[in-house]
Amino acid sequence: MAELQQLQEFEIPTGREALQGNYSSLLRVADYCEDNYVQATDKRKALEETMAFTTQALASVAYQVGNLAGHTLRMLDLQASALRQVEARVSTLGQMVNMHMEKVARREIGTLATVQRLPPSQKIIAPESLPPLTPYYRRPLNFGCLDDIGHGVKDLSTQLSRTGTLSRKSIKAPATPGSATLGRAPRIPEPVQLPVVPDGKLSAASSASSLASAGSAEGVGGVSTTQEQAVLPPPPPPPAASDGFLPPPPLGELCLPPPAPELPMPLDLPPPPPLDVDDLGLPPPPPPGFGPEEPSWVPDAYLEKVVTLYPYIRQKDNELSFSEGTVICITRRYSDGWCEGVCSEGSGFFPGNYVEPSC
């Protein structure tokens, strides 16, 4: 630092003053050489003397300029070194400031991470008086408050309880106007008796006609199977003999009874009423259990009853195996051609192209 100060205050100013002094000296030497060359008789000698002054002046000026340039470069080097030192000090100070800020930040983080212990005085203080508890008592649920919520729905429970549920077998039986009301025993119309003549006038033709009419009446209102007799109530007994009508003879007895004594014919007998089919009414349909009874494996509801055309052996556990001619009740059809159904062997899936509808 002292050398730089010496260069700035002494060496460089002295060199500048020396150059300025040489400038004025060189001007006087130049005037002298010019006058000497003009006034000298020997021009060559004057020229050599001028050249010697010029060389000496150039050497002196070059030395002074070089010396001043060296001092200036040295001063610049010292200033650059000083600037580098100042820069290093500033960088060191910046690092120190950053370190201090980091320490302060870590200290703040440490204060946040420390456990905050509450002083012993800050404790949970129980209330001086607890609020009185209301005694518990059971309240019944009042569902009437929900009456105005939602929308109304038609109640079909009463109608269903009256009508009941129709089974599959009862649905199969066709309903006719003459059928009885559900839940009641069907009423069987009584056979209409035709007027007959007294026993004395009975002939073979009248006996045959009475037999035919009795057979037709029995075919309309009678019951031919034992199962129906077990299910339906017996038909009403034939009218007594005092009414003036006799029951028709059985089919096996074709021989005529012995003639009875002639009775006097009544004077005014009303003509026999015309036989009106509409008055008789249609025959009642067979009861639900009258038709052929389905096997126990037939489901209550199915889509169609089919018969297999070819035998099939199942490939999976959930498929059906059947032989040709097996009856299957289809419960569901799928879009890929497979069906789901029930047979006597069990239930499962089977291909739909192996079966045809049952007659």
TrEMBL record:
- Localization: Cytoplasm
Q: Which GO terms describe its cellular component?
A: actin-based cell projection; lamellipodium; SCAR complex
The family note in this entry says:
Belongs to the ABI family.
Q: List the InterPro entries.
A: ABI (IPR028457), ABI3_SH3 (IPR028455), Abl-interactor_HHR_dom (IPR012849), SH3-like_dom_sf (IPR036028), SH3_domain (IPR001452)
Q: Which residues form the signal peptide?
A: none
Sequence segments annotated as region (Disordered): 160-196, 213-273
**UniProt-recorded name of the protein:** ABI gene family member 3
Q: How is the quaternary structure described?
A: May interact with PAK1 and PAK2. Probably interacts with TARSH.
Keyword Iron-sulfur attached:
no
Classification from the root reads:
Eukaryota, Metazoa, Chordata, Craniata, Vertebrata
Q: What is its main location?
A: cytoplasm
Q: Which PANTHER family match?
A: ABI GENE FAMILY MEMBER 3, ABL INTERACTOR FAMILY MEMBER
Annotated keywords: Coiled coil, Cytoplasm, Phosphoprotein, SH3 domain
Q: Where is the composition biased (Pro residues)?
A: 232-273
Which residue range or ranges hold the SH3 domain?
A: 301-359
Q: Name one GO molecular function term.
A: SH3 domain binding
Pfam families this protein is in? Abi_HHR, SH3_1
Q: Name one GO biological process term.
A: defense response to tumor cell
